[in-house]
Design a protein that fits this description.
Keywords: Signal. The protein contains 4 helices and 11 strands; from the N terminus they run αββββαβαββββββα. The chain is α+β, with helices and mostly antiparallel strands and 245 residues long. Bound molecules: calcium ion (CA) (3 copies).
Length: 245
Amino acid sequence: MQTRPPTLTRLLAHVSLPLVAIAKPATAATITLVNGGFDAGTDGSAIISGWTDSAPSTPGFWLANDNSPGSAPDPTEAQGGSALYLSTNRLTGGAGSQPSSSTLSQSVTLDTPTLNLLAAGSSQFELDFYYFDTDSNDTGRGTVTFLDSSLATISSLTTGDLPNIGANGTSYDAVDTPWTLVNLDGAMPLNTTSFRIDISTGPRAGGSATNVHFDSFSAQLVPEPSTALLGLLGCVGLLRRRRAS
Ligand SMILES: [Ca+2]
Ligand SMILES: [Ca+2]
Ligand SMILES: [Ca+2]
C-alpha cells in the first residue's frame, strides 16, 4: 500500500477544514440606510428624516399610515415596519398640489467594512424595496447612482418606469394587488465611496394627485470569494491532483 508523504498529509489537514468554513455560502452585508422603512415621523408629514425632497417648497412626498389612505387606489396598510409608508398622494399630505414630477433622495457614504468588502472583490450591489401603484396616470421608479471620492458620477442603475401592479384604479388588496417587491441589482464600481438613491415620480399624465407608494428600502453588498481564497482553492486543487496521480 502506498502511503502519502507526511508533509502533504499535514498540509491537507490544516488547509481543508478552514476552507470548508470559509467557502460556505456567505450572507449579504447590509448597508445601513436612514429611515429606509419610512417608520420615523408622523402621518401626513412632508418631513421625512434621512431623505431630501428636490423641491421642498412644493413637496412631492409624504408619510402616510393605514388610518389615512388618501384616495381609493392607495394602500390601506404599510408593507412593513410601523404603520408608516412613503406616499406621493397630496390628499394624504393636506392642502396644496404637488409637482408633476418629484424626486426624493438619500446619499449613503460607504462605511469601512463595506469599502473593505468592495476592495476585496465583492461588487454585487442589491437594492430592494416595495412598491404599490394601480394608477395609469402615474409612474414611479428607483435609481442608484454610484459616486467616487470627488462626488463624480461613475455609473447608475435604474428600474425604469415601474408597471402598474393591477388594472387602473384597482384598490389595494393584500392578496390580489399587494405591495410588490422590486429588486435593483448590479455591479458597484471599485472606486465607489458613496451612492445616492433617487425615488422619482411622474410626469403625471392626468389627474390631480400622484398615487404611487414605496416602503421598506434595504441595500446590501453580496460577499464573494476573495482573490486570496480563489488562490488557495487553486493550491488545494493542485495538491489533490498530485495526490491522485
Ligand atoms: Ca414602513
Ligand atoms: Ca402607474
Ligand atoms: Ca393619480
